[in-house]
Structures are given as C-alpha cells and as structure tokens.
Design a protein that fits this description.
By secondary structure, the protein is mainly α. The relative contact order is 0.08. Helix 1 packs across helix 9, helix 4 packs antiparallel against helix 5 and helix 9 packs across helix 12. The strands form 3 sheets. It has a 5-stranded parallel beta sheet, with helices on both faces. It has a 4-stranded parallel beta sheet with strand order 9-8-10-11, with helices on both faces. The protein is 52% helix and 5% strand. The protein binds iron/sulfur cluster (2 copies). One iron/sulfur cluster binds next to helix 10 and helix 12. The site of one iron/sulfur cluster has 13 residues, from helix 10 and helix 12.
C-alpha cells in the first residue's frame, strides 16, 4: 500500500465505505460468474457419457505441453508468438489481479510470500507483463482490422463475422492493463510528489511511462486517478469474467479442462456409446448424434473451447477445394446453437435434429470430410472433429440417410466383403499374373502354411487392376527379404476401416470379426500391409491380432540391416517428392521410414512440398470416399499435384493405393501427363531392388513351380 495516498478501501463512496462497496462488487461479480458458468455447464450434464478420467499423469503432461507450454501456437508464427506472449502475461498478472481485488476490502493486504526480494522481482516482471499484454492487444486489433488474415473471414453462408466482438474483447483487456498500470503509476507519482521514496516501477514499462506523464499533476488529480482507475479495473475485470462465456473468449476459462480431457490416442474412433460393449450394441435404441444432446459432454466442451482462430479450416483440404465443410464452423454453429437453446434464463434444450431443414448442419457438409485429421493436428486446443463427424454419420446411417452413390458399395461390402461387388474367390487373382507367379510364389496363410507373416492386402489392392501392381511389388519385396509370408486370399474381407468412418459400425464389426477369426486361424506372428487404411484398422480398430507394420517400415528395416540392397535410379534428372498418406503419417506418425527408404536409393533427388509430414494435404480420401461425389470447385488431388510441381518434383511417391488412385487421376485432370508421374513406394523399391544373379532367378522359378 502506498503511504500518503488513500486506498480504495479507505474512501467513502455515496455514503458507503469503500470496503463495503468493493466487498459487494466482488460478491456480485462472482455470483454473476457462477450463475453464468452453471448455465453453461447445463448442456454438458445432458450430453452423452465420455470416459476421460484415465491416465491422469499423461493428461497432466499434456496440460504442461499444450496448455502451459502453448506447444502448437508457433505453427502460425505471428499469431502464435503473440498468443504465447499474452498468455504468459495473463498467467503472471493473475496474482496481481487477485491482490488488487482484495485490496478493495483490505487496504494493507499483501499476498503471502510476495514481500521482500521475491516481491520486488515479481513487481518488475508484472510491470513488463502488463505492458506486453497491452501492446499485444493493440497489435492484434490492428491485425484484425487492417490486415484481416484470410482465416478469420466468415463466408456469407456461415453468418456474420465476429470482428466487432473480437476487437471489443481486445479493447477490454487493453483497458484492464491500462487501469491496473494507471493505479500503480498514480500511487508512485503521489509518493514522488510528497518527497517519499517512490515504489519502483520497471523502466520503460506502461506504469513507468504513465508515472512520468502523471508526476507533474496536482495531488488531488493523482488521488482521483488512483481511485477511479481502481474502480474501472474492478468493473472491467468482472465484466470480462462474465462476458467471456458469451463468445470466443470463453476458451480462457475452459481451455485448461479441454486440454486435460482431450483424446489421448490417435487413429481411433470413439465407440458408439461409451460403456456399452459391442455385444450389447443391439440394445442401443439410436446410433450416433442426431440431436445436440447426443454429443458427449466433452464434445460440448470442445464447442465452448474454440478460440475461433481458423487454423483448422485453414488446413482442411475439404475447405480448400470448396467442399461445403469448414471444421471451424462445425464448432461455431454448435456453440451458437448452445447459446440459443440453453439461454441464461428460461427453458433449455429442445432436441431439434441437427441435420434437417432448419438444422445447423447439412448432409453434404458431414459427408465431405475425408477424416484426414489435418484440423485436429493443427488445433492448439486439441479440439476433435473426426469422432464428431463419424457420430453424425452414424446418426444419418441409422435413419437410412445414405448418399445414393454410397449405397451400392456399402451393400457390396455387406454381401461380398468388398465395395466393388467382386467374387470372394477372385480376391487372390492378382497373384496369378503370369510374369509374377513364375518368380514369386504367394502362399495362402492358413493353419497348415506355417507362414510367419500375414500380408493383409485389402480390397483395392486385391481387385483394382492398377493397384494389384502394388500388391505384387510388396510380395516381391517380402520374398527378396526372405520373409516367410502368406495372404488370406478368399478368407480375407475388406478391413472395414472406411465402413466404420462412414458410420456403418455394425458392418464394420462384421468385417472385423470375420478377419480376426481368419487371422487367428492362420497362426501368423506378424502382419504387414501396404495399405495405410488397413494398417490403421488392424492397429487401432481390431483387438487381439498380431502386431502390424506398414510395408515402408519393413523395407526401411531391411534396407538398414543390409538385407535389401537398392540400385541407383536410372534417370538422375528425375526429382522425387514424397506425399504423406494421412493414415500413415498424421494418424500413425510414420513419417521417417518412407523418406529414409527413398534416401537409401543411390542418386535419388528428393524435395519436400510445403505441406508435408503432419501438415500433409489429403489426396482426396480413400475407401468409400472414392465412391462419393462431393460438391467442390477443384479436386484435392489436383491441388496436391500442383503442390508437387511447385516443389520442383516430377515424380510423386506415395505409400497408399488410394493416394495412388487419386493422384494418378489428378495428374490426368490437371493435364500434367508426361510432366508428372506417380509411383508407390513399394513399386519403386521393387524396381530398384538389387536382383539375384540369373542362376538364382532360375532357382527361384523352379522353386515357385514346385510350390505351385
Ligand atoms: S478431418 Fe480433414 S477433411 Fe475432415 S474436417 Fe478435418 S481437416 Fe477437414
Ligand atoms: S477448432 Fe481449434 S483450430 Fe479450429 S478455430 Fe477452434 S481453436 Fe482454432
């Protein structure tokens, strides 16, 4: 407390003592906040169950990394740096804000432990923190008003922009910083005036500058400034506290909890109902999300926690090609829905269907997602989209609301175990190609085969003429590495990966159960696949199956050990670029193995696209997405091929048959045939393999004939 100047608690205002007035203001402010918070929590109590209470130490670690450490913010350098600065400033100033509020009730209050040297250091740090936050608010407002980054824009179909709200909030925070600084500066200036030792203010900080401005003012003015700045500070503090739950700033309160309760695993899909096992799913009356209350409480918390920073949509390939989907607005629309249907006063919630005329989402919007995960990877608050989208699809499927183009493949999956409606017995036809079968014998992995490893082929590689080449390359590589492998052949069905992500949970379960039985019966110890979708399904959606690897991981290991040797590239002028498939990269973090394999090919020149690794741009989606015809301005694959050309490449290497289908198609659509080609990693490695001497080849041929 500054000696000589009257503290806010010691003054009488309108016949009321300062102590009483500020006690009442504090109580009123807190009561309003808790009432508002209670109303905001109400929908969460009506939401579906969601099990987020496991692994507390892992969760705390993530809080330290993503909330306290602001881990994802630097991915957008300017906005991220500013956010880190004002977040740190807020944390530092929280103690100061608390002390100031108590000062109105207790004029001599000093926070325990904040006197002496520690207190002095804190005083300096907090002066600079207030200055930085103040300046950040001004820069952020200028950015929003003048520079208008495209990702903050609100397309007309999503309603009005939030510029006014955002700038108003920035102004309120700046006012809070200014009033706190003014309070301190007027006290210090008063001391200088009285010839007393003045409270130390950090040089060039906002309070220091204001003290310089005020120091020549009369004592009465300083007293008035001191008291009014305190008054403004308290009112702004409580106004902000109670106003934030009505807009994007609510994340200030919810983000800590949102990060703590965030999903821990990757590549998975939430169960239809938490706490209901697969065996009891037939007792569930309704699948998926149809009304707002069908969302889980955590998904509702996501809606509150969105900072509307636009990063998710900025990275979303569906949004980039003009599909009617922008993840940011999936959240904003749901949050607006909550505010509207769970008002501060009166009845709450009416169970309106979310996807219906007058609902907040359209069918196309929900089917447009490729589940690539770019939005989730980017969100600094760890907000999830795929689980929500899959749940909304489950709801539509449950109501028989399936797009026309998907009906046939879904039926074929049910009846034939593949989306093309081809015969089961033709599943291993790709192994019978003449040139191939003479040099590489692929056996059927069953109880008698003694195969160590299962090559899980999946539908597209089994049946699509072009993709069968990836299957044969994979088999030749395994053979060259001396792996004792086999395939399930007619006993294999589609992995069901896409069926699950398209909301067909029961169909997925049937396919999974069939495959699990077949895998167990084969007695294999390991599984390999060249299809990242199958890889993801076997790794995350299946239980009790042997460990699974993607072929790029096997090749990488075998090349490193010297078991596989690679010839130099024939055309040294070619420039290669690797396209990360979403279900290998983002969902399973396999980024390095394919690159290491490419770099192990002598003479191969490799470049990177701007959007690579965890920022890879989806090729257009795999599985059933190949059958869906979304409304879009441009194909994702075409955009991806253009990115490869911009990087200076003329060969795109993929490690996924679906990427291959989309990218080869896109090369044609973009008119880049002859200038750009695509090849699968397995095909390229197969091409470059150092082959055994002709005599050995002959030996292999004989062996294959014997085996056949
Ligand atoms: S998963 Fe991919 S396509 Fe779907 S909303 Fe997220 S970024 Fe967009
Ligand atoms: S969901 Fe995350 S990334 Fe998207 S706008 Fe909200 S906070 Fe930003």
């Amino acid at each position: 407390m500054v000696e000589g100047i009257q503290s806010p608690a010691q003054v009488t205002y309108w016949l009321m003592s300062g102590r009483t007035l500020f006690l009442l203001l504090n109580l009123l402010g807190l009561a309003c906040f808790f009432y508002i918070a209670g109303r905001r929590i109400l929908p969460l109590t009506r939401g579906e169950r969601d099990w987020r209470f496991d692994q507390p130490f892992v969760r705390l670690e993530r809080v330290l990394q993503f909330w306290l450490g602001q881990w994802k913010h630097p991915r957008y350098r300017t906005a991220g740096t500013m956010h880190i600065l004002f977040f740190a400033g807020f944390l530092i100033l929280a103690t100061q804000a608390f002390s100031l509020l108590i000062l109105g009730v207790s004029p001599n209050f000093v926070l325990p432990g904040s006197s002496g040297g520690v207190g002095h250091i804190y005083d300096i740090v907090k002066d600079y923190a207030a200055t930085i936050v103040f300046l950040c608010m001004i820069v952020a407002a200028i950015r929003r008003i003048v520079f208008k980054p495209a990702r903050y824009e609100v397309p007309a179909r999503y309603g009005k922009g939030h510029l006014v709200d955002a700038v108003f909030l920035l102004a309120l925070i700046a006012l809070l910083m200014a009033s706190e600084s003014l309070f301190e500066a007027s006290g210090a200036a008063f001391q200088v005036h009285q010839g007393q030792p003045a409270e130390f203010l950090a040089v060039l900080s906002l309070p220091w500058v204001l003290k310089g401005v005020l120091v020549a003012s009369p004592l009465s003015t300083l007293q008035t400034v001191h008291l009014s700045s305190y008054f403004v500070d308290v009112l702004t503090f409580y106004f902000l506290l109670c106003y934030r739950p009505f807009g994007i700033q609510f994340h200030v309160e919810t983000s800590l909890f949102n990060v703590y309760f965030a999903k821990l695993d990757r590549g998975t899909v939430k169960p239809v109902r938490w706490g209901v096992s697969d065996e009891h799913l037939d007792q569930v009356n309704s699948f998926g999300v149809k009304t707002f209350e069908d969302f889980t409480w955590k998904h509702m918390l996501d809606f509150y926690s969105c900072a509307d920073c636009g990063r998710c949509s900025d990275q979303c390939p569906a949004n980039a090609v003009g599909r009617p989907l922008s993840p940011r607005f999936l959240t904003i629309k749901a949050r607006d829905y909550t505010f509207q249907h769970y008002p501060m006063f009166g009845r709450a919630g009416n169970g309106t269907p979310l996807i219906s005329p007058g609902g907040i989402y359209s069918e196309d919007e929900i089917w447009s997602c490729t589940t690539c995960g770019a939005c989730e990877e980017e969100c600094p608050l760890l907000i999830q989209y795929i689980d929500k989208i899959v749940d909304l699809r489950r709801g539509m499927i449950d109501d028989g609301n399936v797009p026309q183009s998907l009906q046939k493949p879904l039926k074929a999956l049910e009846s034939r175990g593949n989306p093309y409606g081809k015969m089961e017995k033709k599943r291993a036809e790709w192994t019978k190609a003449k040139d191939f079968s003479q040099t590489c014998a692929v056996k059927t992995a069953d109880a008698k085969s003694n195969a160590d490893m299962l090559y899980f082929v999946d539908s597209i590689t089994s049946y699509d003429d072009r993709m069968q080449s990836i299957g044969r390359a994979t088999a030749r590589i395994l053979d060259a590495a001396g792996v004792n492998f086999g395939i399930l052949g007619a006993a294999e069905k589609d992995s069901g990966h896409e069926a699950r992500r398209f909301g067909e949970e029961m169909l997925f379960m049937a396919l999974r159960d069939h495959n699990v039985d077949a895998i167990k019966a084969s007695g294999v110890q390991r599984i390999v696949t060249a299809d990242p979708h199958a890889y993801n399904a076997l790794k995350h959606d299946y239980k009790d199956v042997p460990p699974v690897e993607h072929i790029s991981q096997v090749i990488c290991r075998e090349v490193k050990s010297g078991n596989l040797k690679l010839d130099p590239v024939e055309n040294a002028d070619n420039v290669y670029v690797y396209h990360d498939p979403c279900y290998l990269g983002r969902h399973n973090q396999v980024y390095d193995d394919p690159r290491e394999v490419l770099d192990a090919i002598p003479g191969l020149k490799r470049v990177e696209m701007d959007r690579c690794r965890d920022r890879s741009f989806c090729c257009g989606g795999g599985g059933l997405m190949l059958f869906y015809e979304p409304k879009e301005d441009q194909r994702m694959g075409v955009k991806r091929v253009q990115m490869a050309a911009e990087a200076g490449a003329n060969v795109i290497v993929t490690a996924c048959p679906f990427c291959m289908a989309n990218i080869e198609d896109a090369i044609k659509v973009a008119g880049m045939e002859g200038k750009m080609t695509a090849i699968d990693l397995a095909e390229l490695v197969d091409q470059q393999l150092v082959r055994p001497a002709p005599a050995e080849l002959e030996h292999d041929k004989l062996r294959s004939e014997v085996l056949a």
